[in-house]
Every structure is written in structure tokens, then in C-alpha cells.
Amino acid sequence: MISSRPHTRSPRRLADSGSWRPGLGRWLFAGLCGIAVLTGCGGDAATAPDATYETRGIVRQLPDASLPGSELMVHHEAIDSFVDSSGETVGMGSMAMPFPLADAAMLEGLEVGDRVRMVFTVDWDGSPPLEVIELEALPADSRLSFEQGLVRSIDFESGDLEALDTSGDGASDNDASDAQP
Question: Model's pTM, two decimal places?
């Protein structure tokens, strides 16, 4: 007998052959693929920082675990290539300033007075706008230079920049006194 219905395979036979997926599974798979594409293939949806800088300095204060928001205080060398929130290269003079840490475990073994190399990111729209992503101790006899000159005060909340003329001969931490700048 000839049937007028087209020949189709039953869902059970297709499932057994491996070429059939239930309708819900297709939609779920498509939805997950769409989410992965929108979030960068499963990666962090955060944007890239505006800039990344490497500098060296001296640890002046370690964060206090009992004080929420307490940050690492480092007196760092000048960063000539520093770019402000408007995109202008303005440089940043040597100064002591607080730095939030991406991971508190970076502090392991560090003490006040240690010389460090650090890498931090700047994201002017981020909170916090600065964040240390790498921190390592340097040898105790590492020579650091805290040059004076045009020192800039930056409000990291607003990105405002104020230039302070502090012309001088420069400073170095390599003196025997290692006075706090």
C-alpha cells in the first residue's frame, strides 16, 4: 500500500542515531552560545583598563585587616608616561599614595620599609580607579629615585589634575637615613 505521508524517521530512531536533539535542548544550547558570545566567550565581561603602569617604591603602610577599605601605601618613583582621565600624558611625580590590591595574598611576606616592584591598572570609570595587579619584593639594596619637579595631585574619584610646582634638587631613598618623603 502506498502512503501519502512523507517518509520520516521516528524521534526515537533519530535519537538512537545521534542526529536528533530534543527541541528544548536546541533552544538551551542556542541560548548558552548567545550568552557566551555576549560575555566574551565565557570570560569576564569587564572592560580592559585604560592603562597599565609598572613602577618601584617603598612600602610605607600595609593595609589593616580590621579596617575595611584600608589600602597599601607605597611611595613610588615618578611615572613619566602617566595619562590622565582626558587622555593627556601628564606624568606623575614621585609620591606616597594608597593603592588597592586585586589580591591581598600579594602582601605575603612584605613589611613596611620593603622595596617593591608593582604593576597597577587605571580604569577611570572603575571603582576603584587604581588597582595593583602585581607586587613583588625587590632586594633590600635596590636603588630607587624619588625625583622632584612637577608633581601632580590627582583626584582619582573625579580624574581632576592639579599641578604643584615643587622644584628642587630631587630626593633619593638611598641615603643612610632613608627618611620618609
Answer: 0.61
Average of per-residue pLDDT values in the chain? 74
The pair phi, psi for residue 32, each rounded to 5°, is -65, -40
Cell numbers that stand for 135 in this block: 607586587
> Which of helix, strand or coil describes residue 163?
strand
Is 99 within 8 Å of 132 (Cβ atoms)?
A: yes
Residue type, 101: L
In this structure, the strands spanning 115-122 and 130-137 are antiparallel
The pLDDT tens digits for 39-89 are 445 445 568 899 999 999 999 999 988 888 889 999 999 999 999 999 999
For the segment 133-157, what is each residue's pLDDT rounded down to a tens digit? Answer: 999 999 999 999 987 545 455 565 6
> How far apart are the C-alpha atoms of 79 and 95, rounded to whole Å?
10
User: CA 102, CA 107: separation in Å to the nearest integer?
Assistant: 11
CA distance 21 to 48: 38
What is the rounded end-to-end Cα distance, in angstroms, of the chain? 100
Mark 78-99 as b/e (b = at least 16 C-beta within 10 Å): bbeebbbbeeeebebbbbebbb
DSSP 27: H
